[in-house]
Amino acid sequence: MQIELTPLPGVVILTPARHGDERGFFSESWNRRRMAEAGLDVDFVQDNHSLSARAGTVRGLHFQAPPHAQAKLVRCGRGRLLDVAVDIRRGSPTYGQWTGVELSFENGRQLLIPEGFLHGFVTREPDTEIVYKCSDHYAPDCDGAVLWSDPDIGIDWGLGGTEPVLSDKDARAPRLADFDTPFTWEGAA
Ligand SMILES: Cc1cn([C@H]2C[C@H](O)[C@@H](COP(=O)(O)OP(=O)(O)O[C@H]3O[C@@H](C)C(=O)[C@@H](O)[C@H]3O)O2)c(=O)[nH]c1=O
């Protein structure tokens, strides 16, 4: 498993080995022991899978508040997407900053997003599937969102001026400045 850091400490790109043969490949998409050995010990309890029919579909920016905060391990099952994490931990040196990584079936990359970050993505091909593990169960009462296009965050979604496909919930989400984050950075005074 290859591990790459991103500009946001704690957000990590993981690329599991693929063992190819004449049939195709085999890959351990998550191995708890290997992750723990690498200092990435997360206890996942739910797997999610969604399909976005059209390229340019944006889902996000989402979080679950404590006591049901979620770390996520995200990969692309089919197609191609830009996966994004935003630090929303009050007092964090990187509060409000984002990082994005292209995940595709071909590149096999995965993004590990800890608690305290927003998560969102844009699909770059039709019929793109995302698959992700979560460290807590779905808790609708703790579910929240921040506006995907908030200029204070300034994510470059690569849409080139085209309007994205969005859910009503995501289109109406508040901006970061109008939002009281439920997360605090561990190093905060
Ligand atoms: C997130 C979630 C939704 N649902 C239901 C609620 C609703 O009826 C339907 C669609 O939900 P949503 O519109 O919230 O789906 P979606 O916009 O795909 O939400 C997801 O976006 C990405 C970016 C994330 O990081 C996820 O945690 C989740 O928030 O699925 C579950 O049953 N379990 C779940 O864990």
What is the element layout, followed by pairings?
Layout: E1 2-5, E2 12-15, E3 19-21, E4 24-26, H1 32-37, E5 46-52, E6 58-64, E7 72-78, E8 80-87, E9 89-90, E10 98-104, E11 110-113, E12 117-123, E13 128-134, E14 143-145, H2 168-171, E15 183-184
The structure holds dtdp-4-keto-L-rhamnose.
Dtdp-4-keto-L-rhamnose (TDO) is lined by residues 48, 50, 59-60, 62, 119-121, 138, 167.
Can you put this structure into words, describing what you see?
- The chain is mainly beta and 189 residues long.
- The chain has one domain: Jelly Rolls, CATH 2.60.120.10.
- It contains two helices and 15 strands.
- The strands form four sheets. Strands 1-2-11-7-13-5 form a six-stranded antiparallel sheet, with no helix packed on it. Strands 10-8-12-6-14 form a five-stranded antiparallel sheet, with no helix packed on it. A two-stranded antiparallel ribbon has the order 3-4.
- The protein starts with a strand and ends in a 5-residue tail after the last strand.
- The structure holds dtdp-4-keto-L-rhamnose.
- Dtdp-4-keto-L-rhamnose binds next to strand 5, strand 6 and strand 12.
Strand segment count: 15
Q: Would you tell me the structural class of the helices and strands?
A: mainly beta
Strand order of the largest sheet: 1-2-11-7-13-5
What's the N-to-C terminus distance?
36 Å
Percent helix: under 10%
Write out the distinct hetero groups bound to the structure: dtdp-4-keto-L-rhamnose
Q: Judging from the principal axes of the Cα atoms, what is the shape?
A: globular
Overall CATH architecture: Sandwich
Quickly count the helices: 2
Following the backbone from N to C, one meets helices and strands in this order, namely EEEEHEEEEEEEEEEHE
At the fourth CATH level, what is the homologous superfamily? Jelly Rolls
Q: What integer value in Å does the Rg equal?
A: 16 Å
Strand count, sense and barrel status of the largest sheet are: 6 strands, antiparallel
CATH class, named Mainly Beta
Pfam families: dTDP_sugar_isom
GO molecular function, one term: dTDP-4-dehydrorhamnose 3,5-epimerase activity
Family: Belongs to the dTDP-4-dehydrorhamnose 3,5-epimerase family.
InterPro entries: RmlC-like (IPR000888), RmlC-like_jellyroll (IPR014710), RmlC_Cupin_sf (IPR011051)
